[in-house]
Amino acid sequence: MYSLAIRRDFIAQHYLIGGDWGAENQKHSHHYQMEVQVEGEDLDGHGYLIDIVDLEARLSGLVAYYQDKTLNDLPEFSGLNPSIEHFSRILCQALADHILRLNIKAVSVRLWENEIAWAAYRMADTPSR
User: What is the CB neighbour count within 10 angstroms for residue 125?
Assistant: First the structure.
C-alpha cells in the first residue's frame, strides 16, 4: 500500500461547550497543524498515487475556509463541541468527498491543536462508493 501525506498550518478560534473546562470555555486561538494522508494500492500512469498539486490545492482551499474563523460560528459545528476530534472528522469528510476514488482507498486527517495534542479521523473507500 502506498501512502502520501502533506501538511498545512492555520489559526482558528473556538470555545468548548457542554462542560466546565475553565479557560477552554472562553474563546481562544489554536495554531492548528493538519496532516492529510492518502493511501492506495495502485499508481497512475505517471507513477502518482494522487497528483500532489491537486491535493495541495484542495487542502489550501479548506485551510482558507477555516483560517481566522471561530469554529463555533460555522454551520458544520452546529450543536457540536468544537473538539479536535470533531474537527478532524469534519476536515476528513470534506476532503474525502473529493478524493476517494478508484486508486485512493483511504484518506485520514491528523490535526494538532498544539505541540503535544492531536486527534485523527480516517475514512476508507467502501464498495458502495
Answer: 17
